[in-house]
Design goal:
The complex is a heterodimer of chains A (about 240) and B (about 260). Chain A has about 240 residues and is of the alpha/beta class. Chain A has eight helices and seven strands, in the order βαββαβαβαβαααβα. Chain A has a single domain, classed as 3-Layer(aba) Sandwich (Rossmann fold). In chain A, strands 3-2-1-4-5-6-7 form a seven-stranded parallel β-sheet, sandwiched between helices. In chain A, α2 runs parallel beside α3. Chain A is globular and about 45 Å long. Chain B has ten helices and seven strands. Chain B is of the alpha/beta class. Classes of the chains: A alpha/beta (about 240), B alpha/beta (about 260).
């Protein structure tokens, strides 16, 4: 028999970046826990793999302001939790960066998150909901990807201030995963090597993202290898 | 002669930096969106008019800078703010804030480095904010852009020093006596406790070493508190800034109900 959390209420979750990576892993985990999930991603609904979880999925281009607002106004009724996973980035030093593409990375990793938070406020506040922003451990700085690191630091600083603003209305948590085996690193230009095998498994990161969002205190949580290892015996005990 | 580039140099801290650079015999180029402010700059200052929120104008500014002589000091100062409870601020204003405060300086830096327009042993200074240490509820998006800029600088620091000999620095000023800061302050009657921008500009000019520059005793103290007790610093900021801004935003409705 599958282990079930002792009586967890079924909630309505919104997950962005749900078509792949950490977002997809979060969706799978939430479905397994019996929650209702609304997912968005870049990919169209028809191009999703056949084993994609049976959720309410919508393709939304997060660089389009109007698309974000339309989606939230039309598709979301009640909402308890939002987990914003969508992100993009490249392994590029400052010499390799392209001035014209800085705007694109900022708009997905930061501006879109602000538009989403802004549009979701009313729905989340109405049900004392929680907002989870998925950052990266790169928020502390990374010479191999300064623009990506900056957008994740911006998300962290935004989340910190917003958590203070919304303190009694909507809990805001910024969750910073360490390197995760999602294929994003290869897409971003980091060749797969022995280190890739050591990266955090997406399902474990998803677990820690979902739990981290429920944390009582502290706006920020780092999803590190250490945290993963200390949780392993717990998982085994289940 | 020291060649200096200052973005947002027509007003506020940028203007003070222009004055300091001229006083020290520098040759100054100012990039600003404020056309009338640019005409009021002292003689000898080169002006580039560009609204950094506009992608096309940013590109043409980049083209012009890529054709200029290398700079010894670049001060990425241009910044705007929007204060009030996050959900009440128009989201387009926040998008513009991100374009000016974060996207533009990162794109400009990329272009300047790739075109080799910062001299060896030169300085690249980003104007961040004390909010990096103590947060800034009531200006959440602004706080985000300044943290982003600070970490962008931190990511470049060692790399640019080693490969090109460029010193990257961040200045984190507290509240200043500028039009910008006073507009976004909940208490307009505390001009005495605010730092004068010329003091901050002089500190920037003098600080040839170190990564983080926190001008003034009050700001330094706040930055230490923020580093040691970030939670407490945040709660204090909520009380002294956000709750006053909140009261200001809700005033009209309070008046009608009184």
């Amino acid at each position: 028999m599958k282990w079930q959390a002792p009586h967890r209420r079924s909630r309505i979750y919104l997950v962005t970046g749900a078509s792949s990576g950490i977002g997809l892993a979060v969706v799978k985990q939430l479905c397994a826990q019996g929650h209702r999930v609304i997912g968005t991603g870049r990919r169209s609904g028809t191009s999703l793999p056949v084993d994609y979880p049976d959720i309410d999925y919508r393709a939304v281009d997060l660089t389009e302001a109007a698309a974000i607002e339309r989606f939230i106004d039309d598709e979301i009724d009640g909402l308890d939790r939002a987990i914003l996973c969508a992100g993009a980035g490249f392994y590029r030093t400052i010499e390799e960066e392209r001035a014209g593409e800085v705007e694109h990375i900022v708009s997905i990793n930061f501006t879109a998150q602000i538009r989403l938070a802004h549009a979701l406020y009313g729905k989340l506040a109405a049900r004392k909901g929680r907002l989870g922003l998925v950052g990266s451990v790169a928020h502390k700085g990374a010479a191999a990807m300064p623009v990506y690191a900056a957008t994740k630091a911006a998300l962290d600083g935004f989340g910190r201030a917003l958590a203070l603003e919304w303190r009694d209305r909507v809990a805001v948590r910024v969750l910073h995963p360490g390197p995760t085996r999602t294929g994003m690193a290869e897409q971003a230009g980091r060749p797969a090597d022995w280190l890739t095998k050591l990266m955090l498994p997406p399902h474990a990161v998803a677990d820690m993202v979902i739990d981290g969002l429920e944390a009582d205190r502290g706006y920020r949580r780092t999803i590190s290898y250490g945290r993963y290892l200390t949780r392993l015996p717990l998982r085994a005990a289940r | 002669m020291t060649r200096v580039l200052i973005t947002g140099g027509a007003k506020g801290l940028g203007r003070a930096c222009v004055r300091t650079a001229l006083k020290n015999g520098g040759h100054v180029t100012v990039l600003d969106a404020d056309a009338s402010g640019l005409t009021q700059l002292p003689d000898g200052v080169s002006a580039i008019h560009a609204d950094l929120a506009d992608a096309a104008e940013l590109r043409s500014a980049i083209n012009r800078l890529s054709a200029s002589e290398p700079f010894d000091i670049v001060i990425m100062n241009a910044g705007i703010n929007a204060t009030g409870p996050f959900e009440t601020l128009p989201v387009e204003r926040q998008a513009k804030l991100i374009a000016v405060n974060l996207t533009a300086p990162m794109a400009l830096t990329t272009a300047l480095i790739q075109a080799d327009k910062i001299a060896r042993d030169g300085r690249l200074v980003f104007v961040g904010s004390l909010s990096h240490f103590v947060s800034y509820p009531g200006a959440s998006t602004y706080a985000g852009t300044k943290d982003g800029l600070t970490v962008f600088a931190r990511s470049l620091r060692r790399h640019l020093r080693r490969s090109l000999g460029i010193r990257v620095q961040v200045v984190a000023p507290g509240p200043m006596d500028t039009d910008h800061a006073t507009e976004h302050s909940p208490t307009p009657d505390d001009r005495g406790t605010r730092m004068h921008p010329s003091v901050v500009a002089d500190t920037i000019w003098r600080s040839w070493s170190g990564f983080l520059i926190v001008p003034g005793m009050a700001a330094s103290g706040a930055s230490i508190l923020g580093r040691l007790l970030p939670g407490m610093a945040g709660r204090i900021m909520r009380r002294v800034i956000f709750e006053k801004l909140q009261a200001r935003t809700s005033e009209p409705s309070n008046l009608s109900s009184r």
